[in-house]
Amino acid sequence: MFSFFKKKTPPPAAPAAPAPPEAPPAGGQPSPPPAAAPAPVPAPEPAAPAVPAAAQPPADTPADAPAPSPVTAEPARRSWMARLSAGLRKTGSGITTVFVGTRIDEALYEELEDALLMADTGVKATTQLLQTLRRKVKEHKAADPAAVKALLADALTELLQPLEKPLVIGAHQPTVIMVAGVNGAGKTTSIGKLTRHLADHGQSVLLAAADTFRAAAREQLGVWATRNTVDIISQQGGDPAAVSFDAVSAGRARGKDVVLVDTAGRLPTQLHLMQELTKIRRVITKAYASAPHEVLLVIDGNTGQNALAQVKAFDEALQLTGLIVTKLDGTAKGGVLAAIAQERPVPVYFIGVGEQVQDLQTFKAREFAEALLG
Does the pLDDT of residue 77 top 70, yes or no? Predict the structure, then answer.
């Protein structure tokens, strides 16, 4: 499932006569949206454009514009949930075995503490989870290990809940999304998958190949652009900030819904390279005063506590608005999301468990907790 918030254009004034019964659009011409808040739209139905093509110049949303309305896609998630559970098995197995053939005593809590720390949940998150679990066990008078395990899932869901937030598309024309991450985290591939999801939901996308340092990065993004039939702005060996400026300017001129800026991989310890990222952000703002509207960091779920360090460093430099967590399949360190929720709760927009486009899905706290604990 892929879901995001999509802003609708303001509805026209209601006619004096009663409105006729609602009917589907005819001949491809969009019909005026109803005055009431729209209901969720199923995945097969593409979203309408945020602003009619070339109808008005790019500008920020007026103060009196309606709030973004939800557009969600709800295809069957069973197969993906099975892959998520399988991917998190290495992380969860050490935790779930604590509840096998045991009594609810202090020894169980000590074993559970060790298992959570081994899963890279972190000291602070582990402490909070155990405190919450003890309270819930006392409140529910739980004496069965299976019941305690279910209460742990509840506690983990509560901890992760602040990370569950939809991506907002359509509040600006275009919505400019800057994407950062260290080399090898799956940044460019995640951009390609996100582009596909946006295009499938009726969004016109422009890609900016601002990763001008890594060999073949421009070509890799170009392949995704061709595959998804979207425009791309690139310059061989060009300045990344200049490419970003040109792309944002082109996105505004062409009336695009989304501009995705792929930046070069950076290690947070490389100060001069991190300064290059802040320069890109400043230049994007020069091209569009309110941009970037989203600053995403792609992190590798296999890196554990190092992923938390990356979130802190990139957040301080770029003011992150969201995360994409990749490679959760097969990792023993998936508990790092709990550490992020406790110490630097930047929303997790998407999580990835494979190489296919459909393997990048929206993050939901309850689903993740249940998949982790089996």
Answer: no
